[in-house]
Amino acid sequence: MRAGMENKFENYKEVTDPKTVSKVRSMVNVKNGEWKKDVKRKEAPPDYQFYFQRVDGKVIETVYYEVWYSDGVAEIFFVWDNPFDKRFSKEDSVELIEVVR
To answer: Pairing state of beta strands 73-80 and 48-50?
Structure first.
C-alpha cells in the first residue's frame, strides 16, 4: 500500500489463502484477458503494489504489479519482458481491492 502521496510503499498485507492467491493469479495471468503490450507506465505513483512469492524456496525474478484505481475500476501495469497494462471490469476490480486492501 502506498504511504502518503509519494512513490513509497509499506508492507500492508500478506495473503496466504491458496484460493485467494489462485484467484488473483488467474486475474493477472497474461494468457487470460486483454492485456495491452508495450505501454508506458503512468506518471502518478500507483495506489497499490503486489507480487507473488514462491513458497517452495526457489528464487525467481519478482514481478511487481502496480495498481491504480479510478472510478471504481482497477488498472494494472507490470513489466515482464515488455510492459503490460490491463483495465479490469468493475466486478474484478472489486474482487482485487478486497484482496489488496
So the answer is: unpaired
